[in-house]
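Q&A log
Question type: sequence-to-structure
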Amino acid sequence: MGIHELGPLFEDVQLNNILGDGKTFPDCMPKRDLNEINADYLQSKNKAGFDLKKFVELNFTIPKIYSTDYKSDATKSAAQHIEALWNVLTRKPSSQKRDPEGGPDEEGGSLIPLPHPYIVPGGRFREIYYWDSYFTMLGLRVSGRIDMIRSMIDNFSFLIDHIGYVPNGNRTYFKGRSQPPFFSLMVKLLSDEDEKVIREGREEEEGILVKYLPQLEKEYQFWMKGTDLLSKANSSQHRVVLMEDASILNRYWDQYNTPRPEAYKEDVELSHQSKQKPEELFRHLRAAAESGWDFSSRWFKDATSFATIHTTDIIPVDLNCLLHHLEQTLSEAYQLAGNSLKSSAYQSLSRKRKIAIKKYCWSEEKKFYFDFDFVANRQKENVTLAAAFPLFFEIASPDQAISTGEILEAKFLKPGGRELRRHLIGQGIGHRL
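Response status: OK
Response body:
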C-alpha cells in the first residue's frame, strides 16, 4: 500500500490542502505501518478536537526540500553556474532496500529506489523525470559528464526491466503512465560518445545499441500494447489507434482513470466544472501528464477551457515522431546484433509510420504539422512547437521543413531566440533549428 491508496485519510489531507502542495503528502515517509496509521485515523477523525495536520505531522516525515539555501553567484557565467548546479542536483543511489530480485521496494515511501546516481530538476521535484532527463543529458555531455549519462540510462533500463516501462518519474504514484519516449535518443547519444572513445583508441566495450537492445524492445512493446486487439469496431486500445487506412499510430494514455495523487484537489475540482464523466476527464488529465505538456491548450477542444481536455482522442505528432525514431533505432540495433530479419521488420514499421505521420498530421493547405483528432476525424487547429519534431527527425520533406520552419519562426521565435539560433548555426550545431 502507498500513501495515495489510504482512502479517506489521503482524500481528506489533499482536499483540505493540509500541506499546501498536493505533491507533498504522497512524497511523505510513514513513521510506522500504513495500515496502523489508517486504522488510527478512522478511529480518531470524528473525535472532538481532532487536528488533521497534527495527525499527519505525528505519523509522517515531511519530505526535505533540497537546496533551499542555495544562492546563485551572479558574478559567474551561465556555464559556471550550470557546472556548479550538477552536484547540487545529483542524487545518490537510494539507501532504501530493494527487493531480493533487484526490483523496487515499495514499502514505506513512494520513491522507487534506483541503483545509480541521477539528476533531479530540484525544489519540489525530488525524483528523476523521464523526458526531462534527455535534455539534462545534453547538458551533461557538454560538461563532459558521460559517466552520469550512463548511470541515468542504466536507471531507466532498471525501470524498464522491473516495471515494464519508464514511469513519469520514480514514484509509485506515477505508475500507470510514462512520458515521451526519449530512451532511444538517450541510447543514441551515449552510443555517439562511445564511438568517440573507440576512435580515441581506448578499449572497445560492447556496442551500446546492442547492449540496450532488450530495453529498447521492451519499451516499444509497452507503447504498442493492444495492437493485436485493434479492429474497425475497436479502433483504439491503450496507446495504439487503428487509422482508417489500417495504419497504426499512437496516443498518450494512462492505466488509471482516477484523480492524480499529486494533484488530487485540482483534478477533483475540475471534474465539478467539466461536462465530461469524471473517469473520462481524469484519464485525459493523466494522459496529458504522460505527454509532458501538462497542461497545454493543444489538448483542449475549446482552447480557452481546461474542462474540455480530451487528450486520449488525439494523435500527437511529436509522440509518433519519437516512436519512428525508436523503430529506426531498433532496426539499427538488430542489424548490429546480426538479426537482419528483425532489422528489416522495424525498418518497414518506421517507413509506414513516416507515411502515416505525413498523411494525418501534415496540412497541405496550411503548410504545417498538426495533431490529429481521430475521434472527430480531423486535424487539430493548434499551432504548436510539436511541429518541430518532424523536422528534427527528418520526416518532413524539404518543402514541408521550409514552410513549417517559417511559421515556427514567425509565431514562436522572439528577439533573444533569433540571436541564439544564429549563434548555434554559426557554431555548426543549429542546423536543425
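Response note: Residues 98-107, 429-433 have pLDDT under 50 and may be disordered.
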